[in-house]
Amino acid sequence: MLGLRKHKGVYSGAGIFLLILFMSFLFFLPFTKALIPLTLNGNAPGTANMWTANSIDSGVSKITPAGVITNYTISGANTPYGIASDGTNMWIVNDIGHSVTKITPAGITTTYTGTGVGPSAIAFDGTNMWTANANSNSVTKISSGGVMTNYTGTGATPVAIAFDGTNMWTANQGDNSVTKIAPDGTMTTYTETGFQPVAIAFDGTNMWTANKLGNSVTKITPAGTMTNYTGTGNQPYAIAFDGTNMWTANYMGNSVTKITPAGTMITYTGTGFYPDAIAFDGTNMWTANYDGGINSSGSVTKIAPSGTMTNYTGTGRYPQAIAFDGYTYCFCSGLNQNWDVAMPANCILKVDCNMGTGNLSYTGPFMTNYFGTGDSPQAIASDGTNIWVTNLASNSVTKITPTGTMTTYSGTGATPYSIAFDGTNMWTANANSNSVTKITPTGTMTNYSSLTTTPRGIAFDGTNMWIATSALVSHQSAVVKVAPDGTSTSYAMSSGLGGLAIAFDGTNMWITNSLSDSVTKVSSSGGILLYATGTGDTPYSIAFDGTNMWTANYGSNSVTKITPSGTMTNYTGTGVNPIAIAFDGTNMWTVNKGDNSITKVAPDGTMTNYSDVGGGRYFSIAINGTNIWVAHLNDNGVTKISTDISGNFTVNATLQASDLGSLYANQTIYIGSQANVIVL
Fold first, then answer.
1. How confident is the model at residue 624 (pLDDT cuts 50, 70, 90)?
2. Which of 256, 266, 340, 590 falls between 20 and 30 A from 240, CA-CA?
3. Inter-residue contact 285 to 256 (CB < 8 Å)
4. DSSP character for 636?
5. What Cα–Cα distance (Å) separates residue 358 from each residue in 42, 339, 364, 553, 654?
6. pLDDT by residue (tens digit) across 126-162?
7. Rounded distance, CA 389 to CA 638, Å?
């Protein structure tokens, strides 16, 4: 095989000459330059794109859902091998340049040097980018500003990297192992995957590796226990999750393999030649096909859930990585004119950037972003007028008035995990200081400490606050009743593991037990009235609709309706990883951490999903009048979503030429999440 080819960490072929040639062009960076061309073309309302990193051309290719390919050369990139999205920007690792390149939606590139030697893969943890450095047995954490921190000590030749929601994991080709990297950089390596693990992906609970020379996949539990399944296509080079199944791209088989949760494998042939990367777009799988040959133009293949394939040729040469940009552009408009918007299904109108003035005729949900809360907003609640947000990392709360004015008050207990309203004051449950904090309407705080171990959920019964807790070692659920003066009474629970959330039904308290897929109903005196198993997997949150309780089930993408007698009905089909739930007077709404979406659940369980509502890593939801508020952890902000806006209204904002560069007559713009404007 001709040309430079790095087989997941090992150079081969006749590429040594090219390697030397490329190294002679290294620069001292960062560079800050525009992609060529500057203007991104080819998007349409409601679409998102796949991107490939093309190793031989020092460039990237954007592939629209229709298969239209646009190639860009990146100044400062040297042999790009991995690509990932942070929700706004694309990031590329440059193997020879020992660097990363950030590409904004407007096509501006910035390259930062200083990773470990030979970065070959990249992943996002919600805040930082991480690279796996194949030739230095290390990982590098890269902040949004490009600051790098290197950690050494992974297994041999880490060539792939993935995030499990808390830890980073690398697949180490050189010694058939995986390494778990804790948030502080501490590493634990587990051996005995299949032969030569070269890719890794997370299924919401377990990590999976694709083992190139074992024609197998390995499932790794959070504790590091491994189970191998053989029988994929020939040489699985990449792996990705579709929300239910794992898929591998099989390099020597020109095929993909679907692996069910039980480990059953179905292989579909017919991709482009040598598929060596794979990614999911929410509906279809896509492979990047290396193709081979120095003059090859490269290709991508779209694989429908049934296995039907469509090939598109013309990417840059030797595409070695593929990633989804996640952007959903929900409407287009002209400048300073009237807009008549026909919305695609399941989109939310986003007006969160400067976009010109004009009259907008529209019916449907409407989103406005407010940013500027404290560090890492975690929980959110309404006092009937204002929204209050707890800031996990800064031990504070932020009050947001109806006009969007924000005031942050510092001094809660450590790690305010949840928040509730008592009719006058807000109360937080502080997980890392075993305390609660009472916050008056003016922001005055009173802390009550040493109440119990790891308080999580909090709810008001009309007189007292109640806290759901989970013991650190046994995970046994318990409840604590806190009087208005801070006096507390603890009640041990004889059943239920992993108490996370609590809600009041007008008479009794209900607790979700996340580790035992159950709920517990507790009387005002602390006695257990009902312990019922059978919710969906990992119930994280609970809310009351006036008659029934509803849980949001993180692990099974579902909600469970629980009648007063404890009868449960499960409804599947929310967005990925529903982590919080709230009631609007008619419907339940979940906020879904795994795909940055919200889901409206009708009383009969019928669901409507709305995608890409701004921010990322959603953690909580609250309803205030006709508005839904979502706190998202990784951009220190909240999003307000009006549930029913119709008719004509004026958008009062002005598009500045300085925001976009040169503007032209009759130009069309798309509005994306987090105040990004894409010029077409």
1. confident
2. 590
3. yes
4. T
5. 25, 7, 18, 42, 10
6. 788 898 888 889 998 988 777 889 999 999 999 999 9
7. 8
φ, ψ at 341 (rounded to 5°): -100, 125
| pLDDT tens digits for range 46-56 | 345 666 666 55
Rounded Cα distance, 656 and 209, in Å: 47
Cis check: omega of the bond before 222, within 30 degrees of 0: no
Asked whether the beta carbons of 172 and 218 are under 8 A apart, the reply is: no
In this structure, the number of other CB atoms found within 10 A of the CB of residue 70 comes to: 17
Cβ of 134: how many Cβ atoms within 10 Å?
30
Query: How would you write 261-275 as a 3-class SS string?
Result: CCCCEEEEECCCCCE
Q: Which of 389, 390, 421, 417 is nearest to 404 (CA)?
A: 389
Comparing CA positions, the residue from 485, 443, 442 lying closest to residue 464 is 485
Pick from 325, 335, 363: nearest CA to 347: 363
Q: In whole angstroms, give the CA distance from residue 559 to residue 374.
A: 30
For 429-477, what is each residue's pLDDT tens digit? 988 888 899 999 989 999 988 666 788 889 999 999 999 887 766 677 7
Alpha carbon distance 42, 70 (integer Å): 8
The answer for residues whose C-beta is within 8 angstroms of residue 470's C-beta and 6 or more apart is 453, 454, 456, 476, 477, 478, 497, 498, 499, 500, 514, 515
**Closest to 413 (Cα-Cα) out of 438, 398, 394, 395:** 395
Residue 22, SS3 per DSSP: helix
- According to DSSP H, which parts of 429-577 are helical? none
Q: Answer yes or no: are the C-beta atoms of 83 and 94 closer than 8 Å.
A: no
Give the whole-angstrom CA distance, residue 361 versus residue 343.
Answer: 11
Distance between CA atoms of residues 352 and 205, nearest Å: 34
Please, which residues bridge with residue 457 across strands?
468
Distance CA 513, CA 497 (A): 5
Tens of pLDDT, residues 69-92: 777 666 555 566 678 777 667 788
E-assigned strands of 116-224? 119-124, 129-133, 138-142, 148-152, 158-163, 168-172, 177-181, 187-191, 197-202, 207-211, 216-220
Buried b (16+ CB within 10 A) or exposed e, 340-353: ebebeebbbbbbbb
Per-residue CA distances from 331 to 25, 104, 366 (Å): 42, 20, 12
Burial of residue 482 (CB within 10 Å: 0-12, 13-18, 19+) is buried
Task: Tell me if the pTM is above 0.85.
Answer: no
466 CB-near residues (< 8 Å, 6+ apart): 458, 459, 460, 479, 480, 481, 482, 502, 504, 509, 522
Residue 373: both structure tokens together? 């809360």
Query: Collapsing DSSP states into helix, strand and coil, what is residue 558?
Result: strand
Q: What is the pLDDT of residues 324-338, one digit of tens each?
A: 765 433 333 333 333
Instruction: From 108, 197, 118, select the one nearest 155 (Cα to Cα).
Output: 197
Altogether, the residues listed in the chain come to a count of 680
